[in-house]
Amino acid sequence: MLIRANSVYRSVNGTMNPRLTFIWRYRVIRLLLLLMVAGPATLLAQTEPPQVAKLRKLLDKLPNQKVEMGACIMRLSDGLILYERNADLPLIPASNQKLLTAAVAVERLGSDFAFETRLYRQGRDLLLVGGGDPALGDAKVAADNNSTALTVFENWAKYLRDQKLTFIEGQILIDDRWFESEWIHPTWEADDLNKWYAAPVGGLNFNDNCIEVALKPTQAGGLVEYTVFPPNGWTKIINQCKTGGNAKPWLHREKDGQSFSIRGQTREVVELGSAPVADPGLFTGEVLRESLIGAGISVVGGVQRWDPTQQPIQPGEEPTLLATNRTPISSVLRRALTDSQNLFAECLLKTLSRAPNAGSNPGSWTAGQQVIRQTLESWGIDVTGLVVVDGSGLSRDNRLTARQLLRVLQTVHGWGPKGDLLIRNLAVNGRSGTLRKRMTDIPDRVWGKTGYIRGVRTFSGYVIGADQQWYAVVILFNNLPGGSAPYNDIHDEVCRILARPG
Questions:
Q1: How far apart are CA 241 and CA 159, in angstroms?
Q2: Do 106 and 124 lie in a common domain?
Q3: Three-class DSSP labels, 338-391
Q4: Which pTM does this prediction carry?
Q5: 487 and 351: one domain?
Q6: Which residue among 293, 328, 363 closes a domain?
Q7: Does residue 89 sit in the same domain as residue 226?
């Protein structure tokens, strides 16, 4: 900085005035000292990324001050924190919990891992053995492979016919001991349990452990016709729905868990959506049995859960492997992250305790929780305040901080190609999953995970900036007093600030 000496500091004859010389030196020294103190702050202000001021303006004052927010935003190239607020406050993450589950699954299971379901011949019976695969019979995973939900069982039936095995004298035995027998998490809210997103989590699963019912009207006042998918002999339908009228038709699972009532009225063909079954293992076995019968294979007996302690294998009846279905971990990650399918995240969590060297006990929520916590600690993440209850975030008892989740995103990004297994299976704005209809004005810039349960709205993920830098974003909102739309808008605007120039 140039400092000019004013002419007042000189006497009329051109010589320096001693008094004024002292004042001038004092002021120069004082100015230099001020510059030394203020220099770093001045430099920081000059180098502060331009997005920071916009982020502060957007996030420092929320629409409702009763809302709790935890936020942390980082430039990943150098670890610079652009914004943070209550970053160490434990909050309910909703489906952002799936990021923890998925990241640990990538680390512990590896990219080559696949879920397996096996079919055996055991004496006069067929034995169906589950490996916790949530994608068996899942329509979206099947469509990715140019098939249908029933294709796997149809292919097995064809194989049996080709082997001249068209008459099963015994029954269909199921072995779903890969996971614990607790299929519903005790902290899930009662109002959720009849919804597809709270389907039971079994060692054997099919069609997301749900049935779908379609209605077709008949004559006015008469009962409607209905079809059930997938066809099975386990679910019982009580048809009380009539043709005509204005009452909306609906599907209700009865207390016995096996019966479903169709109620209301309809004048047109309608699909009632998905409703969860109560016993995923027996349900899957019944779908297999129905598929075999439909393909011309006779099955004399019914479906029964196999207990080797009560039904020991007799000499000469050792199981013979007939067929195996394998689902790569990438397909499961895609459904858990892109589409936020809870069952897939829960199966990943329980599988963590069945990973190599993790022991031979059935996969469980409790054991999976411990694996997640231990893995995060091994990554150097401070787990103070972290509470892992389930894998999907459906439970309101989960707690994590914005900083913990940001550190997970930072860790995954630092893996390089290994981290791509998670990142490429996130929803993409304007293109896929839960972000398909959001931020369409900045397409393909955001790779993220949304989260929503009552009173909670969350977003975490990656944003590719206008400068081609990668940013990690975590914004958790709790205690929402009303609708979530304003908080969705805030999530989206944060991403726009990072993705757009200036």
A1: 40
A2: no
A3: CCCCHHHHHHHHHHHCCCCCCCCCCECHHHHHHHHHHHHHHCCCCCCCCECCCC
A4: 0.89
A5: yes
A6: 328
A7: no
Q: Based on the domain organization, do 127 and 83 belong to the same domain?
A: no
Are 59 and 99 members of one domain? yes
Residues 225 and 230: their CA atoms lie apart, in Å, by 16
Q: Which amino acid is at 76?
A: L
Same domain, 173 and 322: yes
Segment 218-239, tens digit of pLDDT: 999 999 999 999 999 999 999 9
β-pair partners for 225? 216
209 and 259 fall within a common domain: yes
Closest CA to 356 of 42, 112, 13, 118: 112
In a domain, 36, yes or no: no
Separation between Cα atoms, residue 439 and residue 469, nearest integer Å: 19
On whether both 78 and 225 belong to a single domain, the answer is no
Enclosing domain of residue 420: 51-110+330-499
Residue with tokens 């430039």: 75
pLDDT in tens, 53-76: 999 999 999 999 899 999 999 999
H helix runs in 261-358, sequence order:
280-294, 329-337, 342-352
Which residues neighbour 442 within 8 Å (Cβ) at sequence distance 6 or greater?
Answer: 429, 430, 495, 496, 499, 500
H or E, element range at 44: helix 18-47
Helix (H, G, I), strand (E, B) or coil at 93: coil
Residue 155 CA to residue 323 CA, distance in Å, equals: 9
Calculate the alpha carbon distances from 494 to 84, 308, 462 in Å: 13, 56, 11
